[in-house]
Amino acid sequence: MDQGGASKTYQRRNPTLLLFYTLAYTRVEMYGKGYGMPSSHSQFVAYFSVSLSLFLLMRYVPSPSTTHSPATFTERLLLSCVACLCAAAVAVSRLYLNYHTPKQVMVGCAAGALSAVAWFLVTTYF
């Protein structure tokens, strides 16, 4: 039995491996005008979601009021998780629509998240 037959049999049994192989090693035709490095959509949504999460979880101090009840920590945590899930959805959509490569999207997300953390540290401590 040759190597090709063994790997095809294994891929049929393991759908996760097949998905990984398809995403990692398949060359797809890129649409758009050759959008570059990094993905600006991924960078923006990563920056926004990390900034919002840091603000809600670290800096926001609820004050009691007679007109409304302030958000609890659980509600703020839930909102932060929703923001991060939305950011992940935008990043995945850039891949799904073949506008960017996985590397471009990962670099965009990393740049946005690092920028948000840096800005949070600068505005908090300086």
Structure description:
The structure is a single chain. With 126 residues, the protein is mainly alpha-helical. The chain has one domain (36-125). The protein has five helices and no strands. It has helices spanning 3-13, 15-25, 40-59, 73-96, 102-125. Helix 1 packs across helix 2 and helix 3 (40-59) runs antiparallel to helix 4. It starts with a helix and ends with a helix. The mean pLDDT is 80.
Low-confidence stretches: none
Give the biggest sheet.
Answer: none
Shape: elongated
Tally of DSSP β-strands: 0
Structural class category: mainly alpha
> What is the average per-residue confidence, as pLDDT, rounded to a whole number?
80
Percentage of β-strand residues: under 5%
User: Could you state the order of secondary-structure elements as H and E?
Assistant: HHHHH
Q: Counting H and I runs of at least 4 residues, what is the number of helices?
A: 5
The first-to-last residue Cα distance is 66 Å
As a percent range, the share of helical residues equals over 70%
Radius of gyration equals: 21 Å
**How many structurally independent domains?**
1
Subcellular location: Endoplasmic reticulum membrane
Pfam families: PAP2 (PF01569)
Family: Belongs to the dolichyldiphosphatase family.
Catalytic activity: a di-trans,poly-cis-dolichyl diphosphate + H2O = a di-trans,poly-cis-dolichyl phosphate + phosphate + H(+)
